[in-house]
Structure formats: C-alpha cells, structure tokens
Fold this protein.
Amino acid sequence: MPSCQRGPNWRQPSSHKEVTRSMASQYNPQDIEEKWQAHWEKIGIYRAHDDSDKPKFYSLVMFPYPSGDLHMGHMRVYTISDVISRRMRMLGHNVLNPMGWDAFGLPAENAAIKHSLHPQKWTKENIRFMRDGQLKKLGTSYDWEREVTTCDANYYGWTQWLFLKFFEKGLAVRKEAPVNWCPECCTVLANEQVEDGACWRHPETRVEQKKMSQWFLKITNYSEELLADLDTLKGWPESVRTMQQNWIGKSVGAELRFTVESKPNVQISVFTTRPDTAFGVSYVVLAPENPLVEELTTPEQRDAVRAYVEKTRLKSELERMATEKTKSGVPIGCQVINPFNGEVVPIWVADYVLMNYGTGAVMGVPAHDERDFIFATQHKLPITEVISPNGEPGAELKEAFTEHGVMVNSGEFNGLKSDIAKDKMTDWAADHACGAKRVQWRLRDWLISRQRYWGCPIPLVHCDDCGIVPVGEDEIPIVLPVEGIEITGQGGSPLTKMESFLNAPCPKCGKPGRRETDTMDTFIDSSWYFLRYCDPKNKKEAFSKKNVDYWMPVDQYVGGVEHAILHLLYSRFFTKACRDIGLLSCDEPFTNLLSQGMVTKLSSISGRIEKMSKSRGNVVGTNDFFKRYGADSARLFTLFAAPPEQELEWSEEGAIGQYRFLGRVWRIITELIDNQAVVDLNEPVDHDKLDAAGKNFHKLIHKTIKAVSHDLERGRFIFNTAIARCMELVNGLYKYAQELTARSNNGNGKAAKSQESTTLAPQGDALSKEEVQLLSFAVKSLLLVLAPMAPHITEELWKLSGYIKKEGDSIHNSTWPGFIEALTVDDEIELVLQVNGKIVNKVPAARGLQKDVAEKLAMDDDKVKAKIEGQSIRKVIVVPDKLVNIVI
RNA sequence: GCCUUUGUAGCAGAAUCGGUAUAUGCAUCUGUUUCAAAAACAGAAGUUUGAAGGUUCAAGUCCUUCCAGAGGCACCA
C-alpha cells in the first residue's frame, strides 16, 4: 500500500524547497527520541528514593508476561501509567514507577518444545528485547534499578519463603478435592482459571473434573473481609467491584437437617436461602456425587440409582447445565422427616444439584423455586403453596412463586410476612436442634499446584516417615534446575524424572526423601511483586517492612479488566495474609484502579473490529510506527482517541493526525526561536500592558493550564480532553503569531511576499517586550503541560528554548505550571435570552450583572419585546452570567 | 434470568450544579501556495443527542418503560 508510506522520511526527489528549508523547521522524531532516552537513563531522573521529604506516590502498571513482542495494543496501558507517573513527579512527589516481568508460565514451555530452546533462554531473550527494544523506546519513565523478574531465584526464593509462612499459619494446606484438569496444559487449574467450563488459555479445551490431592491457599478464610473491604475501594471502577462481589458470592440463609426415616442416626443437611418455605418441602435431592447416595439407596433402587449416577458422571458440566427445560432424577427408595411438620418425603438423586456448592443436597420446594417446580411437575411430586402474595391460600400455581409474601399452610408461622418468618423459622430450627443460620460462599480455596516445569518449585519434601515436610528457611531458594532438563511435552513434568532434583533428605529426620515436583500457579508470583518493588535488592528478606510501609499501598494501579477477578483478588488476599503474618501494615494493596479498555482494529481475517492480537492478524507493530512517526505520536494517539477505560480503535489516519499536531507544535516553536521572538522567561507577563488580542491570548494560556490540570487530576485522568486543550492553545498560538506577523509586515510594507509566504512567526525585533514575554509564556506553558504525554519533543524544545542549562536539568524535573484564576474567566459573556425556554436572542453583557439589571436587559431587547408583546409575564428566571428566561 | 456499563455530526469523542448542544482530531469541501500534486497555511459545511413517555420555566444530563451494543455471574438452592 504505497499511500501509507508518507511520514517524516517521505521526500519527493524533485522537491527543491525541502533542501533550502532550514533543518530546524523539520520535526524528525528519530533524531531526538533515542537521544533523550539515553540521556535520561544516564542522569537517572526517574529513580525513586526510599526516603524523601516529598510525599510518596506509588504508580504501578500490571507487569507483562514476556511473550516476546509488544504491539500498539499493549502500549496503551504503559502510556497511561507513564503519563500519571510523570505528572505526579512534576507535582513534586517522590514517585515509584517500577517495571518487571511475570516470567514463569506455560508459553515458555510450549515455545521450548516448539523451538527446542530452553524456557530460561527464551524468556531472558524476550525480556531483553521487550525492555530495550520496546518499552524504553516508548519513552517510559521506569526506575529500571528496581526491575523484578519472577523466574529469577532471587525473586522466587522469596515466593517460596512466603509459601512457608503461609504454611506455618495454616493458610497453605494439602487436601483431596475434585479439581479442574486441563488436558491441553496437562495440569490442574484454579476455579478462576476456568471459563465456561473451558481452560482460560484455550477456550476450545474443556476441563475435566478429577479427584486429586493438591495444595490450596485458604483464601476462603478471608471471604468476609475481601467482600466487606470492597466498599472501601472507592477508587476502583464500580464494574470491577461488582465482579469481585459476584465472584465471592455471599448468600445468607440456613442449614436445615432432615432425619432419615429408616436410619434415625443419619441426617441430610441442606443449605437454603429460603428457610421460610420449609413447610412446602415435598422431597429432598442429593447430588449424584454425594456419598450419602450410596449409603442410603435401598436394594430395590440400587440398579436404577447406580445407572443414573454413572450416566451423569459421563456428562460434562456444560451438558449438565444445558437441560433447563427438563430435570432428570431417580428416587433412592428411602424417606426423610421434615422437622417442621413431621411429614415424610422421599429422597431423590438428581444432577441439577451440584456437589461443590452448599452441602450437595437441597430441599425441594416446588411451589417456590423454579427448578423444583419443573422437577416436581415432571416427576409428579406434590406442590404445596406455603407463601401467598396476599395471604389468601389456594391460588392455582402455574409457575413457582419466588417472591416474598405472607405465610400460609405453615402451622404456627401462618400470617407472618415471609421475610420475617425466615429468621423466626431459622431460630426455631436452632432451638429444636435441626438447623442453624448459615452463610454460604461461592468463593473456593485457591488451588495452586501445577504439574508443570516452568514455575516456582513448592518447597516441600515427601518423607516416608514424617509425611510432607516443609524445607527449612535456610535451604531457600529451592532452585529450579535449568541444566540437564529435557522438555518434550510428554509424560508429565520433567522434574519427576530428574533424580538430582528429586533426591533430598527429609528436613525433619534426615532420611532420604523426595522433593515435591509440582510448581506453583504463576498467579502466586504476581500476587506480591508490587511488594518486592519496594525493596527489590533485599537479600535478607522478601521486603523490609519499613520500605513496604513507606510505599504501600499503591496509589494508582493501571491494568486490563481481564484481571478484574484473578490477579486483583489474589493480590488483595496476599496483602491481607501478609498483614496478619506481620509483614506489612496496610489492608488493601491498591487504592485507585484504572481499568483501561482494549485496543481494537479491523481484522482482515474475520472482517470485524476485534481486539488487537497476533492470531487475529490485526496488530500494529511498535517499531515500524516509532520509526515513521515517533513514540510521542503513538503516545498521543492512544491517549487522545478515547477515554482510558473505553475501547480504542486503532486508526492509522488518527495516529498520523497526532504526528501532524506535533509537527505544528514543532514548527511554530522552532520558528519563534529562530526569529528570536521568545526569551528565557523569568518574570510574569504584565497583563495590563497587553493589547486586546494579547489579553485574550494570555487568558487562553491560563485557561489551558487550568483545564489540563483539572483533566489530569488524580482519579480523573481524561487525557483525551487534556490533549484537546493543548491543541486549542496551539491553534490560539498560531492565530496570535499570525496577527503579530501581519502587523509587522504591514509596517515594513512589502517584506512579506516572496519566499516568506510560509512564515508563521513574527520577528522578535518587531515586537514589544510584553509581546515577547507573552509568546515565551505560551511556549513554556505549552511544553510543560504537554511534557507528561509527549516527553521527547517537549524535552527537545525545552532545550532549544534555553531552559536546559546544566546536566540534570530536564522538563521532566520541572514544576507543573500554576495559573491565575482571575485570568481564566472572561469579563464579557454572552447572555442568552429565552421566552418560554426557547432561545430568542443572545446578547453580549458584562460578567457579574445583578439579576434585575439582566432582567431589564432582556426586557429591553427588541426580539424579546416582539415575542412578549401584549402578553402577561408569569415568571422571570435569571441564571447569573448565563441566561434570562421569560415565561408568559 | 440477575448484575455492571455504553448509546451525541460520516467516524472517534467534548459538554461541573439540569441553563447557548458539540471542544478536539479523523474524513469531506473551499481558498492560498505549486507546472501539478503532496505537505504547509487559512477557512467552510454537517447532527437535534437510540425510541417513547414523565418531572421542570428549562432535559444530552433527572425518573419510568422499551430498543441496541459491550462485559460479568448463573441449575449457587
């Protein structure tokens, strides 16, 4: 596509004009960007200091997985976070803006199998390229001294140490449980890593349920706190809080116990959120996996029940959920006694009841539960109404009535409102030893074992005598072997075949034992990396409490919404657990969260606008773009095209538009400098000495500073409007410069014509001192407010304007500009005159008019007069400095 | 089914408290410049705010219902 080849390198061979034009007037990002990146690194201006008089600001972006290549879609999040960091630095904060690598994980192993390259080598090479060839070229302001890589032993050793602490506290436990197995990854997965019954890595692969003995972290110990503290996270998007709330899934109800008629010592517990419907129970259902099924089934029913259980076992979870219209089931032959009314009802087994929620058993109340209604209708079980909308029993039930109402057919509870009866009946059950109040959670413990090689080894030894024994703290790190490992993808983790790794003495008794070969879920690595950033080089501790208490919590976290549950929930849990272990003091890790939207682009494969990704064939590479238009243009476009939390469609034309804008900034400022129309400004502009055009422009500058400051305020971050304001200022600068140029050209008579027809800026010697000052103020302010968003061009122009005098000077070390409030408001406003809410006229008026003066102004207006003539006025509304509305 | 969220010129998006509907960019058109084009500079045009009701002197903004898109949870008892 030759038409796309435009850009700074584009030259027409016959263009002689290009040759004669001064070099300074050409904006060439490739001449300045790498130069400044190297310089910033040399003078170390982005280092964070662990002690400082300045207020701290911890700016964090979700660290990347080193997959090898970042594209423009990835760059959005780094740009947003970088602008925030840079601006906070200019506001006088001690900013921590670190970067690292989430470097353990399956893709490295898969790549190893494919290219027969060791995961470590693959990962390290990717990191080097992504760091030096991509992130640095974007112009990010990271403190690379604090770089953290989770697959380095000096990091994962502390991951193991934290595991031991969790183990000590009883927060890491081994238990046998049904777990999700991904046949593609050949490993188990956490619940959070299963989406719609499929592995989150490949949606086409269904996970299988297996019963295995595995390591879990007891995140459920923190269910209540994780839920309750969501309310304190005012700086989080509502949507993310809701998603976590749904995931934790608290439901309050009761556990009721039904005694088996033929075996009085056996009880079936059910969980219900509606104990008020207990008089309507017409059967009790067990999940097919419930061990009570085998225990209670009568000989006559045994064959039917076994066949049914076997049938459901073969169904996938998806198939089990698919049957919404029909509900299969088989009676097991015996009955339970309803403790409330003494009624004897049958026990069934049915696959609409799930073993892994509640107690794996449910009381069937067909009249007041949709699923039970379908089940009872199908299997001809009685339907007893116990709650009525109006207290009148006997209505024909065509479907389940699931709302609250008034109790009927419920003995001593009749007539009560059902929501009140809920508590009373729970109390009754507790008093009669057949139930209790109970809270049920959806959240389950975090399964962290992975049967994979490229992860953090779990620091345990299996001993025949002592069982499973944690290694001593002095043995840490348990190093993941790199040499002599052969990764084939066959027959499980290579660790299981590596004798030198496997053989280890029992830490307790010293006899030969065998090391645990499972590694940890990589989400463990990322659950505490933000703590390590606070103290990345500590060789004695995971992090010092002093440093963590200084920097934490993170003031602004930026990342993708795909981690709304997974990473963010795990990190919150880790923070609380570390707090209880005594390692730190805060309750929540991330005070403010910005979830940036994804970057999309038309995919030539599907023909639709989709998330930018390699597999969809719609990626825009970083380096092609940087070379052609510069990182500053890329940054501005991603900030400008949409608000940060919204989706952003990448557009080549739009991005070039930003390049054009920066070209405008470059041309006007370099020309002003060439013409000596700007000076090193060190005194304020004297507003009163300016002419009308000057006054207007001076006000525009103050308005711009105010508006950009407001848009970039903490928690607001509306970069698109901030850039729009900068554009307005540039447009204003062109206009003002043009007026000054026209004036001096008129004065000089003919001077203008010939080759000066493209002149943008006036000559300095044709201007008054105030005008030069005003232009200088405009240039200085524009560069300062633009600096966080376009760091390279602003630094170069800052230097050309003479503000860099010694090493260490940088626009990024400068102070964010202030503004004079009085100069942000206009003296004259346009007063809108309405009759009956319809606009009749707009007239200029002085600001701050008294209400009666404004009203008189409106009444005297000819157009208004014509409208209201002969009518009686019912009411006049005056909104000061806005409008007058006459109601007739 | 439940919850969250979005709907404004051709496109992306602005619009404190309800108070002149659209800043800014892309695209389009015109002029200057040019042999011509591009670039640059200057200028113009365009919607009645997804739909219907309601509250109000006044609604893009508040309320109700509906329609459409995006995301989350879901046989959760």
In short: The mean pLDDT of chain A is 89. The two ends of chain A are 64 Å apart (CA to CA).
